[in-house]
Amino acid sequence: MKQTVFIVGARGAGKTTIGRLLAEALSYQFFDTDESIQISSKMTIAQMVEKHDWQYFRNFESQILEEVSQNECVISTGGGIVLSPRNRSHLKQNGIVIYLQAPAKTLIERLSLNPEDEQRPSLTGKSITEEIEGILTEREPLYNQCADFTVDASLSVENIVLSIQSYILNQENK
Q1: Which CATH number characterizes residue 75's domain?
Q2: Which positions are annotated as binding Mg(2+) (predicted)?
Q3: Is 86 annotated as a binding residue?
């Protein structure tokens, strides 16, 4: 049975990159919740948070998650999607959840090379190192709680996609 594949993980784990490649490999549609939020609201996430607040953004994010969820698609989610019990339940009940797990060091290196300040404002106002370490401490148990399959996000893109494909094929053949 073909179904929805949700990709969760911290910012910088590679959810969008892996999601696009995986969708292509599976011949599925691809959605990125952050991108969908920006298209739907006609604002960047930073603008939305500044104009409203983080809670408004999180509610909008939940709405978008439900709107884009459909069979035969890969959905890359925002890093904080797991903060909402409603979203965690939606993920678990509506598809396969893949957790792209990366150590803080890897995430910090990636985010330092490709800062997204205009797109995603700091959650805490702390340095990127302090913020990532704090976020992982808070969210790691939630990612693990949701995950059907965890992949080391520091592997090559090709190996990550192949590993996820293998897992999905195995699940479909059960």
Answers
A1: 3.40.50.300
A2: 16
A3: no
Instruction: State the pLDDT at residue 122.
Output: 58
Annotation-wise, does 12 bind a ligand? yes
Question: Is 79 part of any known ligand binding site?
Answer: yes
User: Stretch 114-128: mean pLDDT, rounded?
Assistant: 59
Q: Is 16 annotated as a binding residue?
A: yes
120 assigned to a ligand binding site:
yes
Q: What is the pLDDT of residue 120?
A: 54
Mean pLDDT over residues 116-125, rounded? Answer: 54
pLDDT, one tens digit per residue, over 94-105 is 999 999 999 988
Q: Is 46 annotated as a binding residue?
A: no
**Residue 58 annotated as part of some ligand binding site:** yes
Residue 11 known to bind ligand:
no
Instruction: Find the domain containing 120 and state its range.
Output: 4-173
* The total number of structural domains that make up the chain: 1
Average pLDDT, the chain: 89
17 is in an annotated binding site: yes
